[in-house]
Amino acid sequence: MSETLSAEQVHEIVQELRDANYQTVGQKFFDTRITRLNAAGWVLGVDSFPQTLTHGRRGHLLRTPRNEWRNLAYFYNRQQMVKVWYWNNSATSKQHALDLAKSAPAPAGNYITFNKSK
Fold it and tell me: What total number of domains does the chain contain?
């Protein structure tokens, strides 16, 4: 029998994932948490989309605009109709964005929140 996790409990687990030091705890720490969330019906979803950049990192105008891939990762429970936002990042390609969300911990400083669908 699998456990039932509320959005608040998933939010705490996601907060724990975000605050963990990857070099100290290792990949097994993240794998066990993701497995627990999957067993409770929470699935990792990733929305990737391109974003056109007209300014560089230091604010200077670029000669030619370039595309950057943005990635929004979240845990979703279909029965409860709740999303717990995990993190967002930028990547060089869509595949790179998907790989970052699935295999790397969330970088510090990014938002984590949850909302309930009506």
Answer: 1
DSSP structure class, residue 99? H
Torsion of CA 36, 38, 40, 45, to 10 degrees: 130
Range of the domain at 88: 7-54+65-116
For residue 77, what are the β-bridge partners?
Answer: 82
Residue 26: left if φ>0, alpha if ψ -120 to 50, beta else—which one? Answer: left
Q: Is residue 38 situated within a structural domain? A: yes
**Alpha-carbon gap, residue 86 to 71, rounded angstroms:** 11
Structural element, H or E, at residue 75: strand 61-77
* pLDDT tens digits for range 77-115: 888 888 887 777 777 777 777 677 666 655 544 445 555
CB atoms within 10 A of CB 48: 18
